[in-house]
Request: fold
Amino acid sequence: MSNAVVVLLISALAFLDLIGYGIRQGMGQLRILRKAEPLEEVLKKDELPDDYRDKINWINEVKQFAYDSLKLDKTDNYTSFYDHGNDPILWVVTATPQFSLQPHRWKYPFLGSLPYKGHFKKKLAVREKRNLDTLGFDTRIGSVDAWSTLGWFSDPILSGMLQRDSAELAELIIHELTHSTIYLPSQADFNENLATFIGRQGAMRLLASKGEKDLLKRYGQNLDDEVTLRLYLNRSAKELDSLYQNFDQNLSAKEKRTLKKQKIRSILDGLLQVQLKEKELNPAYFNADRVNNAFFSTYLTYNASQDSLQSDLDQNYGGNLVRYIDHFRDI
Reply:
């Protein structure tokens, strides 16, 4: 069999796998949409918990603020509700090489290449992770309770979202609406960092406009903690990457793994010394078996550019968030 034929066969199999994945994801999304109920019907139910009712009404306020004050694109998102209880419904796999923070990327039609892959069935995510494990990748699997379909579907409110407090919920909704307004194919770091930044900036402005002084104070302290944590983890990620970049070529793979393990352990020990005022660190941050290259790479995808975005907003746009959003809308 010629090399050309082998390449064609491999390409065909990869294409079929992509089609199969697309069909499964589409069916999963449609299953959620079919079960989602219009908000006006949900809010009429006497059995709807009061905290759910309050947060659904809050989401409507957040949306209106995002449209009127931030000028994000209007969508049909969050006009329905899907109650999945407390069970996760989407699992996301990320991966990196053993001695690199550069993420493994999956290719998708229209979206380009992205450093994560979602599955609506946990067993498929676990299988994906195990396949990557056997290839020597550092891997990570986590569940999410929100995502954007970029306007292709009318994204419902998911019950998992309502476990957040009002400030975090506002940040989440504005984050996802930012994706529906600004999205560059194959630029996950840009898309996620920008949505994270606008979500937080928008939430602060919303709380201030509502006169929510106590909530704004707590949220501000939480964001201050995020800055402290970000500075430490971004610096630590650079140190870890520098370790890999400067490995002696004569080191064995076993020796490299030992140095890697020691460095990560040192980073986690240092994390214990980071002083936070409000935020409680996820215990997973201190699990040396789970904190690997994929952990740091994923963190950077959402947080690496926050300081430069803040500087750009302040210095070049006078803090005017609407003008800043318009700037990116025109890219």
Summary: Residues 183 and 191 are 6 Å apart (CA to CA). Confidence is low (pLDDT under 50) at residues 1-14. The first helix runs from residue 3 to 35. The first strand starts at residue 37 and ends at 38.
